[in-house]
Amino acid sequence: MENKSDNKAKELPEGYKEIDHIKLSPTNKSHETDDDDSESSDSGRLTNIHRNVKTTENQPRGIWETIFIAISYILVIVFFPISVFMCLVVLQEYQRAVVLRLGRLRPGGPKGPGLIFIVPCVDQYQKVDLRTTSLDVPPQDILTKDSVTVSVDAVVYYRISNPLDVALQVIDPAYCCQLLAMTTLRNVTGLYMLIELVSAKKTLSRQIKNMLDSTGATDPWGIRIERVEITDILMPESLQRAMAVEQEARREAMAKVAAANGERDAVKALKEAADIMESNPIALQLRYLQTLNTICNDQTEAIVFPLPIDILQKLMK
Question: Residues 6 or more apart from 44 whose CB is under 8 A from it?
Answer without folding.
Answer: 57, 58, 107, 108, 109
